[in-house]
Design a protein that fits this description.
Elements: H1 2-14, H2 20-40, H3 49-61, H4 66-85, H5 112-120, H6 129-142, H7 146-151, E1 157-158, E2 163-167, E3 173-177, H8 180-192, H9 194-197, H10 217-230, H11 239-252, H12 257-264, H13 269-272, H14 274-290
Amino acid sequence: MEVSCDRFIRYLATERGLSDAYQLSVRQTLDALAAWMKKVNQPLRDLGTDDLATFLNQRKSDGLNAASLRITTVHLKIFFRWLVLKETLEMDPAEPLLAPRPDQTLPETLHAVEIRKLLESIDPAQPLGRRDLAILELFYSSGLRLSELCKARLETMDFEEGFLRITGKGGKTRIVRVGNKAREAISNYLGHERPNLVGKKTSSHIFLSIRGTALSPDRVRQIVKERAKFAGIDQNVYPHLLRHSFATHLLEGGADLRVIQELLGHADISTTQIYTHVDRQRLKSVHKQFHPRG
């Protein structure tokens, strides 16, 4: 088992070119399987589907949630498929395994009143106020992922039409709408603050640090949290919360789910459909609060 694990991890690294983080995740799954096999005295060649199901049940008892069990199942499937491909095993015991459905958790959102409170708390006249306001306005206006905002460049922005070209997950490009308020905030930042941040090695990234470099994701997270704290918002505020709020408020306003899918850059409509659950949850809450027999 140990030799097979080492060979498989090398395969993931050299032939598949997968990240160190993914290799580590797979290694943790296989190490846990190896420890379980040793405990029950079960050699690799004798493992069957029932044995793997027992192992997964043990992992569940150890506290793994549905999402983690799903990832573990995927790891087992690709490992045993590779073993059959390399003729280490004749049959694939992991092929019949069914990955558990991940728990349906509703995304957090900010109320529109809280969004307004957050944005209006930023004074553009203060140092970096124009930059931070432009960041928050763009997050809420366009529903960008954190990485997408950090990578946004001047040449991808059409100020006249109010559009931004984004390269998202999987290298897929999409066009997002930049609302009037966000466009105004970005223009104000570019005209009055960004020139003072430019240094000798500054790139064309829209948002810059005080050193003239592109803002890192960690720094943007910090900016969002600091601004929310200054605005007196008790809720934990982070960039993806603004993306969730963008989608939820569009749906509440009557936007078509397919349009929201395109704006968010979701490959599958099922990913976007979680926002319909958020909307139904809100409707139930309002009905219960205000209806005489709610």
